[in-house]
Amino acid sequence: MTSTQTRRQQATRIPGVGKVDTKLEVVVLPVSDVDRAKRFYEGLGWRLDADFTKGGDFRVVQLTPPGSQCSIIFGTGVTAAVPGSTQGLMLIVGDIDAARAELVGHQVDVSEVFHDEGGVFHHAGTKGRVPGPDPEGRSYCTWASFSDPDGNGWLLQEITTRLPGRVAPEPADRGVVLEAAALGQFLQEAEKRHGAYEAKAPKHHWSRWYAGYIVAREHGRSPDEAEKDAALQMER
Length: 236
Known about the structure:
Elements lengths: L2 H11 L12 E3 L5 H10 L3 E7 L5 E6 L6 E6 L12 E5 L2 H10 L8 E3 L12 E3 L11 E5 L5 E6 L21 H19 L7 H13 L4 H13 L1
Parallel strand pairs: 1-4, 5-9
Antiparallel strand pairs: 2-3, 3-4, 6-7, 8-9
Helix pairs in contact: 4-5, 5-6
């Protein structure tokens, strides 16, 4: 019996022990204009993880909201769904007024803050919406909504206190270690952009510039912003 088979049997035999993590990684969005969707989500400050094209009929664009472990993917040939048909996507925020103000600052048409008449979960569409935050100030019960250019619908949900047991304790080093694929992409970007910087900058060690660039990208900065951050770090 292989070690893999043994682990599988142990996970099956012992409830609650050896369970495999199954984390939501990506949500695929149907869009009609890939470049327009890319501009929209980058304009929200979402990190561009990838933009791959193969031939003229297949393209994959991936972006990640700040602080999120789940990304979105859209493109050409990645889904047969009708553009704009994805609804009810939720972004969790700790301060809905601040999040809404940030969207407004990015020229996004976002609804006013609302709560649901049932007080449990929002109804489909705009049914049951009551203006203003939850009157009892409860976590999970205050919302706002917006859509991307195709009409894919997003909701902001304010969560200030998690329900017990909802989220497992985070590892102490969560968010510190980059996944290999992302790190590889950032290194390639840094190599290309550092060449332009090195040609006009005073003598320096490349590692400091790379470090500044990669840290900035990991924190959601765009490639151009990360390049500026790395240059500022060198000046300091």
